[in-house]
Amino acid sequence: MTTFSDEVRDLVSPHKFGGSRMAAACYLVSLDGCEDERTGEAEWSGGSVSRIGRRIMTVDSQGFVYCETLDSEDEARREFQLIDLAYGEDLDAQEAESTAYAEGFRDIDPKSVDLFTIGDAVTVAGMSGIAYRVHGLPSWTNPYEDWSGITLYHPNRRLVHMVGDDREYDVHVDELTALDEDEFCGGCGQIGCGWC
Q1: What is the pTM of this model?
Q2: Are 162 and 171 contacting, i.e. CB atoms less than 8 angstroms apart?
Q3: What is the CATH number of domain 110-183?
Q4: What is the pLDDT of residues 13-66, one digit of tens each?
Q5: Where are the domains of the chain?
C-alpha cells in the first residue's frame, strides 16, 4: 500500500506539473473532490480553478497544473472570489452573445448590406405620409468583451429616423419601401408636400 507522498512522488512530472510536488498533491486532492472551492472549466481562459486551504490550483485547457501558495487562507479565499467573479462575468457574456445570435444579430460588415443602405429615403409600413432616412443597422456589443472589438449587427433590421426629426426607430426591412428624393419635402419630410 502506498502513502499519499508516494503517490505524489510517482505523479510528479516535469511537464504536467512543472516539477512541482505541491501542484501534484493539490491535483490528487482535487481528484477525490476534496478541494474547498471550485470554479471555472478547462476550456475557460482562466482554466479550472480550485482552492485547497491557502493554495490556488489551476488546470488549463492543455491539462497543465499550476499551484500558487498564498500567505493565508483568507487571502486565498479573496483571490478565489475574484477568479469566481471573473468566471461568472464570462458566463454572462456568453449567454448574452447567444441571446443576440438567437435574436438574429450576426458578425457582418454593415457596409456589405445592399438593401436599404445608409442615407436611403424610405417609407415605413403603418407610418404613412412621412419620409424616413436609413441611419444604419441595429448593433450589439458584448459589455464584457470590450477588448474584442467585435460588434454584431442585425442584417434584417434598419435604424431609421423621420426626415426633419432626430427620433430613431428600429424596423424590419419588410416594413420599408424605397422612396425617390423628389417624392417628399426635404425640410419637413412630408410626402406630397406643396413646397417640394
Answers
A1: 0.70
A2: no
A3: 2.30.30.140
A4: 667 887 788 888 898 889 888 899 999 998 898 999 999 999 999 999 998 999
A5: 4-102, 110-183
